[in-house]
Amino acid sequence: MMKNGNHQVIEKVTIIGGTHGNEYIGPYFISKAEQVGIYQDNALEVATLLANPEAFARATRFIDQDLNRSFSPPVLTGTQDAHECQRAREIARHFSQEDIGQHFLVDLHSTTANMGITLIVRNSEPLNLHTAAFVQKNIPEARILLSDVDHVQHQSLNSISRFGIVIEVGPLANAVLRHDLFETTEKVVDLVVKFLTLCKTRQEPKLPDAVTVFRFREKVPYPRNKQGNLTAMVHKDLQDRDYRLLETGHPIFMTFQGDDIRYSGEPGYPVFINEAAYYLEDTAFIITDKVEVSLD
Questions:
Q1: For residue range 39-51, what is the model confidence (pLDDT) as tens digits?
Q2: Is the pTM higher than 0.90?
Q3: What is the pLDDT of residues 181-208, one digit of tens each?
Q4: pLDDT at 84 > cutoff 70
């Protein structure tokens, strides 16, 4: 395969929205892109994909199961009847007809957590991290979240290609549009497309030698009783403190009896605090480590 410097040459970018049907920015961004015809004269081919139209039409995260957890090999090679399993196979077949080795996927999401602008990348592909670093260079408040969980499990839509990035913006309630976050998403997508275009045309911009990233460490579950019911809620002193250092002993939950539950783990940086969709996954928040990563 052709490479430009240390990077794979990307020939096509697909902007994906509606992987979760109640996250409205992605679908409406796609609708605008198709109506206005943005990126038509770009050196890269830029396409769009509405991942789960049925869930979007119903303003629900999914019909039967989370589409973004439905791209594992057993699903893609199986015959499960769940709507998202069928849709995952349709999407996989769609991309299998193209040269996915030169294809970059941009999956648009929003979160109810106070995550600001977050760029989620798999840390095994330098191009993904370099793309995020270019966005951060132009939008300093953007944060980069590195996760190899998807690389191991191969379940998300973005796992179809080696190359891609997930854009998360928030806080934003489900099934709601916000003008400022919509504009923010547009700006991030524009920068992603610009960077990949510059790489293709051999005008790759200079990046810093290293970037600060937040690396996935572990998920923290909710306190529950033997029946599986919640016995506590996220503490008010933790709420909305995404990306802020969580020290050992800091209150993280408040029981319904009024007692604090304090953090007993090693200090870290919580993200996706009290994300609405993660109640179903029993994840109150995710602990990350703040580290410097070289871009060499």
A1: 877 889 999 999 9
A2: yes
A3: 999 999 999 999 999 999 998 888 999 9
A4: yes
Query: CB within 8 A of 144, min separation 6: which ones?
Result: 118, 119, 121, 129, 132, 133, 136, 211, 212, 213, 214
Instruction: Supply the pLDDT for residue 96.
Output: 86
Report the distance separating Cα 21 and Cα 56, nearest Å. Answer: 4
Token pair belonging to 110: 């929003």
